[in-house]
Give the backbone structure.
Amino acid sequence: MKLRKNVAVSEAGLLFNPVTGESFSVNPIGIEILNLIREEKDPEQIGRIILNKYTTDQATFEKDYYDFIGILEHHNLLESHEETKA
Amino acid sequence: MSKIRYERPVIKKLETGMPNKFGTRTEYAPMTHIDGVSVKSLIKEYGSPLFVISEKTVRSTIRKARKAFETRYPKVQFAWSYKTNYLNAICSIFHQEGSWAEVVSGFEYDKAISLGVDGKKIIFNGPEKSEEDLCKAIQNDSLIHIDHLDELYTISELADKSKSRPRVAIRVNMDTGVYPMWDRFGFNYENGQAWDAINKIMHSGRMELVGLHCHIGTFMLSPFAYGIAASKLAELALSVEQKFKHEIKYIDLGGGFASRNTLKGSYLPGSDTNPTFDDFAEAISSALLNSNFKQDNLPLLILETGRALIDEAGYLLGSVISNKRSSTGRRNTILDIGVNILFTSFWYDHKITPAQSFTQYSEDTCVYGPLCMNIDVIRESASLPLLNRGDQVVIQNVGAYNMTQWMQFISLRPHVVLIDMDEKPHVIRLRETLDNITGMEKVPEHLANFNK
């Protein structure tokens, strides 16, 4: 799973997709996860990093993580499997 | 190293143009304390959900209302509307503050008497008063507000039998320019029913007509309608004086004043737009003072407002059970507060405030209750901060009707706690138990022991 290359993410929490012209606001933990996805960390590694840093448990984070990924997919911000393979 | 408070990751599309139906974010600060008592400690001690009532707010609100009227009109009396919240502790606060009791059933009448209210200070309203109820009210010299002719004739017969002269008023309904016009209670002003009832009472000689009463609607957003109502009752009172040389001692404008809540479908929040006590007082007292009553013979003005006096003092504390997404991607949050205990969520867009700190990020959210029923929706759409499972919330302005219209349905009703003037919490109604419910049930012998 990869974030689309041309998607711009600012540290302040603004995300811009130049293909569609859409802008999004993302909260700090969301930005952190996007950066970890950019660094090609897998969900397990991301989970470990977040659990070490924040007051949450694995079940809660896992649910929220996949919910977040679902919304990224919904907005077409992730590369599809075919694109990733290519 | 201490960990950072977790907030779920969220991404929100930025849109320009028309505002969406969720409106803008309204919560800027958490509500961590109520009258100096922490929400967290209240939930820890008494459980979640939990009703909390602030005695300070109850007292300051009734004092504010009295001041608004008493500075404009010389003779004012409030009567506490039992149906709005008849918990004994709450009624007692209003009675301590000088309010009479306004009841609408035999049950409420008995409650007022058992609390020690002087029978002469009980106003008995409503369309259903049994002969037994009426006998009690006559014996205690209470103020009986007649709703229909059948009741009028019953009281007349009872008065004759008991050789007493009950003090009565009639309830008058009228066109005050608001829609819908409430005409199901009492006698109509415009078509002459009210005048007809007055004549029947006066000619019978068996009752003493002491007052005229109306109650023009509920959650009234126009104070001017009360001005019209006051003028019409004044007109009627003066007609009685002219024809029978009989003085009407009081005019009772009923209740119906809007609270600070926001009605569903309103564009602006009720706290910014709804009339204040001063607005209602100005309209009513101006109408009475401008009528043809002699200066030294003004009738007593009685007010039975309930909702506007208690709504703001009530809070409902609860916890987040879960966050979900609907099939359309909408955020759904489930609270442990259901419509069975928050009846007013059918009428209002209640303000929901987190009880712990949160960031500036929010999500458009549908807030559900815990009941396994599709109707259990607390807010169809609210822009709420990001709530985690187990987080606590405070729903505000819930003091009116919820603790009387609530239902024991699916789950048991929670504790009600009063925070007193010294910021000390007291349980004023215990959480229900299974025994409370099953204790009233009977199982016929042939259905008992079905395992045998």
Summary: Residues 223-244 of chain B form the longest helix (22 residues).
